[in-house]
Amino acid sequence: MKCQDCGGGVNTEIRVSLMTSCGGCGGQSQTAHPCKECGRLHWKDGKTVSNRGGNPSFWEEGRIVIKNKKTGKILFRFKK
């Protein structure tokens, strides 16, 4: 699978579990995989992962990072 952003290969060996619904809705999660080059997260169907606001999600230094879709600046970095 190729990254939709940079064309790099997606590393399917790294699995990142992401919540896709709220706890009140059953708290469902899905697995995403990072690009080997840019770290952009992808679902198993190849689509890129974004938050509800459309900001892209990345895997950097073992953490999920959300960046601003316009500026690329980090909006939020999850703790390890």
What is the topological layout?
Elements: E1 16-19, E2 29-34, E3 41-43, E4 57-60, E5 63-67, E6 74-77
Antiparallel strand pairs: 1-2, 2-3, 4-5, 5-6
Based on the model shown, name its key terms.
single chain, 80 residues, mainly beta, three-stranded antiparallel beta sheet, 6 strands, 0% helix, 32% strand
Provide a descriptive summary of the structure in words.
The mean pLDDT is 91. This protein is 0% helix and 32% strand. The protein has one domain (16-77). β2 (29-34) and β3 (41-43) form a beta hairpin. With 80 residues, it is mostly beta strands. A 3-stranded antiparallel β-sheet has the order 1-2-3, with no helix packed on it. The N and C termini lie far apart (27 Å). The chain has strands spanning 16-19, 29-34, 41-43, 57-60, 63-67, 74-77.
Q: Give a count of the beta strands, DSSP E runs of length 2 or more.
A: 6
Please report which band the strand proportion falls in: under 5%, 5-15%, 15-25%, 25-35%, 35-45% or over 45%.
Answer: 25-35%
Shape: globular
**Mean pLDDT across all amino acids:** 91
Report a brief summary of the structure.
By secondary structure, the protein is mainly beta.
